[in-house]
Amino acid sequence: MAVRLDHGDDGLGEIHEINVTPFIDVILVLLIIFMIAAPLATVDVSVELPSAAAEKTPRPDKPIFLTLKSDLSLALNNDTVARASLAAALDTMTAGDKQQRVFLRADKTVPYGDLMNLMNELRSGGYLHVALVGLDADTAPPR
């Protein structure tokens, strides 16, 4: 809204004002779009991981099974092993060959963070070939 202070000239003069109404409309529409889209981008999704349906790979002659039990104790094949001596026990079992695959089994009640800590310990010990063992999709019990 413009107020004219000079009443002497009746000619059409230039008004040096910008019409900001369309600009405000666009800004408000963008604000509403972002207010709706932002919460959708940060939704937490609960996931139940399915059993594996991958092709079976041939089993080695002497596989190395590392088991993480529900009480977070470790077993190397059938022998219980302390977490502090895990790398030494693996070195003894593999005769120092760090290229051998370690088959990692974990109880389904083990927290994911504890499983990742064990995998980090294997990595720091030099064992990079780790296979996760799970149930086949055909033999998995129904939920």
Protein described:
The structure is a single chain. The protein has three helices and five strands, in the order αβββαβαβ. α3 (112-124) links the parallel β4 (102-106) and β5. Helix content is 30%, strand content 13%. By secondary structure, it is an alpha/beta fold. The chain has helices spanning 21-41, 86-94, 112-124, and strands spanning 64-68, 74-76, 79-81, 102-106, 130-132. The longest helix has 21 residues, at 21-41. It is rod-shaped and about 100 Å long. A five-stranded mixed beta sheet has the order 3-2-1-4-5, covered by helices on one side.
Strand content: 5-15%
What is the arithmetic mean of pLDDT?
A: 79
Coarse morphology: rod-shaped
Spans of 5+ residues with little confidence (pLDDT < 50)? none
Main features:
3 helices, 143 residues, rod-shaped, five-stranded mixed beta sheet, alpha/beta, 13% strand, 5 strands
Write the layout of secondary structure elements.
Blueprint: H1 21-41, E1 64-68, E2 74-76, E3 79-81, H2 86-94, E4 102-106, H3 112-124, E5 130-132
Parallel strand pairs: 1-4, 4-5
Antiparallel strand pairs: 1-2, 2-3
